[in-house]
Design brief:
- By secondary structure, the protein is an all-alpha fold.
- It has one domain.
- The chain has eight helices and no strands.
- Helix 5 crosses helix 6.
- The longest helix is centred in the first third of the chain and has 40 residues.
- It starts with a helix and ends with a helix.
- The mean pLDDT is 85.
C-alpha cells in the first residue's frame, strides 16, 4: 500500500468518525427531547462523579494554589508588587488554570470510567438486551452520564478554585505575612462577571465533550476484552484533545467580545 493510499484511508476514516460522532450526538439530543432523563439514574451518576473526583481534585487544587504562589511571589517581590500576588493568582486560577486542570483530571478519571463501563456493557451484551427488551440504552445509559458530567464539572471547578485559593493564602501568609481578610479582598477585587461567565460556559462544554466522547467510545467498542481497554484509552486521549480545542475557541471568542 502506497503512502498516498494510506493517507486517503486515514482521511476517509477520520471523516467517517466525524459523521458517526455527529449521528451519535444527534441521537442523544433526540432521546433527551423525547424521553427526558431518568432522574434517579442521573442523580446516581452525579454522586459517582463527585465521589470519585473530590479527593484528587481537593489535593490537586490545594497544591496548585500553593505552587503558583511560591513561584510567582519572588518574581513580583523583585518589582515591589507583592500586593498584586492574590489578584494575579486568583485571576489565573479562575479564568484558565483551574478549569483546564480539573477538566483533564475528570477526563482521565471519569471519562475513562464511562468508556470502560459502556464497553463492558457492550461486550457482555447488556446494551443489546436493553434494546431487545424495549429499553432505550441511549436514554437510560448515555444521556444520564453525559448530563451528569456536564452538570458536575462546573461545580467541581468551583470547588477546586476554593482549595487553590486556600493553598495560595497559606503560602502567601507564610512568606509575606498577609492577613486572611486582606488576601481575599485583593483576590476577589480583580474578579468580574466577564471572568466568571466564560469560565462557567466552557466548563459546561468541557463536561459535555467528556461525557459524549467517553460514551461514544464505550457504546461502539469492539467485541472482546481488548475493546474495553481501547475504549477507555481512546476516551481519555480524545476528551483531553477536545478540552484544549474548546478552551482555545472560547478564549478567542472572549477576546473578540471584550
Amino acid at each position: 500500500m502506497t503512502k498516498s493510499s494510506k493517507l486517503k484511508d486515514a482521511i476517509a476514516d477520520f471523516l467517517l468518525g466525524i459523521g458517526d460522532m455527529g449521528a451519535f450526538i444527534s441521537s442523544i439530543f433526540k432521546s433527551f427531547l423525547r424521553h427526558g432523563v431518568n432522574f434517579q439514574e442521573f442523580s446516581r451518576q452525579c454522586y459517582r462523579i463527585g465521589n470519585q473526583s473530590l479527593p484528587l481534585i481537593s489535593i490537586t487544587g490545594f497544591i496548585l494554589g500553593l505552587v503558583l504562589t511560591l513561584q510567582s511571589g519572588p518574581t513580583l517581590a523583585k518589582f515591589g508588587a507583592e500586593s498584586m500576588l492574590p489578584g494575579m493568582v486568583s485571576l489565573s486560577i479562575i479564568r484558565e488554570i483551574g478549569p483546564v486542570i480539573v477538566a483533564l483530571i475528570v477526563a482521565g478519571k471519569v471519562g475513562s470510567g464511562i468508556g470502560a463501563e459502556l464497553a463492558s456493557m457492550r461486550v457482555t451484551e447488556q446494551l443489546d438486551a436493553m434494546e431487545v427488551s424495549g429499553t432505550n440504552p441511549i436514554s437510560f445509559v448515555v444521556t444520564t452520564r453525559v448530563l451528569a458530567v456536564s452538570f458536575m464539572l462546573p461545580l467541581l471547578v468551583l470547588y477546586a478554585d476554593a482549595f487553590s485559593l486556600l493553598g495560595s493564602y497559606i503560602s502567601a501568609s507564610t512568606q509575606y505575612n498577609i492577613s486572611l481578610e486582606t488576601f481575599f479582598h485583593k483576590a476577589f477585587d480583580v474578579i468580574h462577571y466577564k471572568d466568571l461567565f466564560p469560565t462557567t460556559i466552557k466548563t459546561f462544554f468541557f463536561g459535555l465533550s467528556i461525557g459524549i466522547i467517553g460514551s461514544y467510545q464505550g457504546y461502539f467498542a469492539k467485541r472482546g476484552t481488548e475493546g474495553v481497554g481501547e475504549a477507555a484509552n481512546s476516551a481519555v486521549v480524545k476528551a483531553s484533545i477536545s478540552i484544549f480545542i474548546i478552551d482555545l475557541i472560547v478564549v478567542n471568542i472572549t477576546q473578540l467580545l471584550t
